[in-house]
Design goal:
By secondary structure, this protein is mainly alpha-helical. It has one domain. Helices cover 75% and strands 0% of the residues. The chain has three helices and no strands. Helix 1 packs across helix 2. It is globular, with a radius of gyration of 14 Å. Keywords: Membrane, Transmembrane, Transmembrane helix.
């Protein structure tokens, strides 16, 4: 259950950053800065995989890819651990 929850939390932070960016949230806000910092840390291994001209699409794909991978690996690992 812990692995499953950690994967969900990681995906939530990444998805929240995508939403805040696309809705043009105030970058100077403490909450937005916190979410951006966590999302950058979680997606540091996948930064600039996609280099599109449109900034919104670039942010979406560079943060959505790790979110999907965290969910797949986290849920798969949790299911495997439950079988043990």
């Amino acid at each position: 259950m812990i692995v499953h929850s950690l994967a969900d939390i990681a995906a939530i932070f990444l998805g929240l950053w995508i939403l805040l960016y696309l809705l043009d949230a105030n970058q100077a806000n403490v909450f937005v800065d916190f979410v951006h910092g966590i999302a950058d840390w979680l997606a540091s291994w996948s930064q600039d995989i996609f280099t599109m001209d449109t900034e919104g699409l670039r942010v979406f794909f560079n943060y959505a890819l790790p979110a999907v991978i965290y969910l797949a690996v986290g849920h798969g690992t949790a299911a495997w651990l439950r079988r043990l």
